[in-house]
Amino acid sequence: MLVLWLVSYSKLKASRILYILDPTVRFFVEHTLVSPSLVSFCGSNSHASLFFGTAARSAVEVAVNGDSVKTEDDYLWQIRLNIFEKAKTVASVCTSGTLCTVSSHEGIEGSPFGSFVDYVLDDEGNPVLLMNEMSMHTINIEKNALNNEGKSSDLVTLFTQLGDALTSKKGQDVSRCSFTCKVEKIPDTAPDMDAIRMRYSLTHAYADQVMDSPKFAFYRLVPEKIYYVGGFGVMAKWVDVEDYKNAAPDILAKDANDIVSKLNREFQSDLELTAKHLLHVDNLKSIRVTNIDRLGMDIRVTAQQGTRRNKLITDEFRIGFRIPVISVEDAKSEVLKVFQEAWELGNDITWGEEEDTPGSDVPIMKIAADSLE
Hints:
single chain; Split barrel-like; Pnp Oxidase, Chain A; 2 domains
């Protein structure tokens, strides 16, 4: 194994580049400059490299339950997804949901009727469904949404939420969206029909067997209103439709749960160092990562307050990445940069000048606080 540590100084910040060749021998890197976590999180590639990038400006923002205080320097980039990106992420990652139509069945005319449906998104973020003409929701749509005579609403609502495989959260704690929409039956001559057929075939294995049947047709839901809920007791807000269409889904969404699980399972000591040296949390009782996306990660810490054992305070922090990531490997690298700098602080390793103190330019926000008796 060869470990090479290069340090180059500039007026702004020392740029540190760590090259690790053949990281399969993990414990060899337990020397004075490198945290052993750096190898274990990189995977099994024979050549791994981590770049400790230079941040152009430093800033720390503290936001507690919506109230924020900024330092003199603002961020050059966001460290949290905006609500439009969050809504687009939920819609993009999910491939099924509950479709609520207006019932046309005798005895329950006008009542809401819910059905489980699969969908994909078109290029504008509109949900597209492949439906059987005999399905009750299709009958309701044909009568009330497409051939409405003013007797009932011509709108439908698609509800979708992140499933267990896509998030470590459960029940009402998961992110979800409701799309209240007009409905369009898509003709075979539509310009994007080929793209829709391909997308549906790749997403839903059964589609190839039925999409050419005359009993099936594609329907496009065009949102009129979008409502996003971040989780239990978290932000809930109406989302502008045009902003939603222009937003990009988070690139880590499908892999976030695996990354979070690995961090909480295998990197507790590094999380504890992060809490102590970067978040300045004393008397730590528990810590876990709750979310990660291309802009940063959320960490929830519970600490004992004072000398009373039953007096606990739980805070949630946002630790931003210095640059937005574009892949899972980039995200791992950014997380390890944070762990490395917390490790350096814990071992009193500095780089000669006050502005080069490890962790001095890591963007950090306190995003929630709670006191539990």
